[in-house]
Amino acid sequence: MTGAAGFIGRMLTRTLIEAGENVVGIDRIPQPARPGLTVLTADLLDDDGLVRAALDGADVVYHLAGCPGVRDRRPGVARRRHRDNVLAGARVLAAVPPSVPLLVASSSSVYGGARGGWPSRESDPPRPAGGYAESKTLLERLCAERIARGGLTTVVRPFTVAGEGQRPDMALSQWLAAAREGRPLRVLGSLDRTRDVTDVRQVARAMTDLVARGAQGTVNIGTGRGHSLRALAAAVAEALGAEVSFAVEPASPVEPGASLADTSRLRSLVGWTPETDLLDLVRRQAAASAPAAPGDRSGKVREPVAVGASAAGPVVGAGPAGPGLRAAVRGAAVLSSLAEAT
């Protein structure tokens, strides 16, 4: 798996390991080793023999790596998006044998929002608004070329993923932090805007089910139901037992008025559709992100060593691909990522 240290990557890793799979997790962000997980700390664009061996020898590859952040406006973000979303994606597509199932995480942002309030279907032509969505559209074109050559490829478009482990720059994380500190919740556009909020646990389950059923082509991962920002804010207030206020700001062109997934293709492939209990989801994310009490070290993550193994599992650094990695890759699902997908 690429992007194994990212938001969705961590949940997908947990889901696979709980199902009895062996995972090789590739990320340039160090991860703690644990049973069932072999860690590769590497950049996908480095010519790393361990990464090549992992991608070439896996039974399944999940490519979640990328440069996240629809609203990122920092200097150099266009270059980072092209490097991490397009060039790194091309490297993975070239490294994975055509006969090996490859699931690639794109984004619902390629739709540019729901059109006229109708759910977005996989057959709708892309309308990317902003650099992030454009980079994901380019990645999808590369995937289409692999499919045309007979490569086993599934492209997923997740919709507004939330839950434990969400990145701190994402809206719900920011709202929880603001509510805890008594600050107004920053709202872009209007509280009446809607989002198809999807539980990260169900996103991970949908990904594994799609691979298990041999799905090919593009698939939405969403609920098919929109939640207003007002309802999401009410869930934040109830989850924290706090009163909230709002600071409403004009929305940029990259912010759609609504997002909504057409889930008919997903249901036809896996036999179910994600459902989001908004209050439960917000409560889980709030509990997972709660500040530690003074003197509480339970949330501390041990730094993995660069090369070697621990009782929890192997941690592998850069270097020639040896028998240890090849044994770990055999029968493993590979998750590779630079940072994470959204």
Major β-sheet strand ordering? 1-2-14-13
Could you estimate the helical fraction of the residues in percent?
A: 25-40%
Average pLDDT rating: 87
Catalogue the unreliable spans: 295-342
- Structural class, please? alpha/beta
Main beta sheet: strand number and arrangement?
Answer: 4 strands, mixed
Distance between the termini: 15 Å
β-sheet strand percentage: 15-25%
CATH-defined fold name of the domain at 7-162 and 198-225 and 262-274 and 305-336: Rossmann fold
Mind telling me the C-alpha Rg?
20 Å
CATH architecture of the domain at 7-162 and 198-225 and 262-274 and 305-336: 3-Layer(aba) Sandwich
Assembly form of the protein: single chain
> Which CATH class of the domain at 7-162 and 198-225 and 262-274 and 305-336?
Alpha Beta
Q: What is the assigned CATH homologous superfamily of the domain at 7-162 and 198-225 and 262-274 and 305-336?
A: NAD(P)-binding Rossmann-like Domain
Please give the count of helices. Answer: 10
Q: Name the overall outline.
A: globular
The number of E-state strands comes to 15
Domain NAD-dependent epimerase/dehydratase: 1-222
Pfam family, one: Epimerase
Region (Disordered): 111-132
Protein name: NAD-dependent epimerase/dehydratase family protein
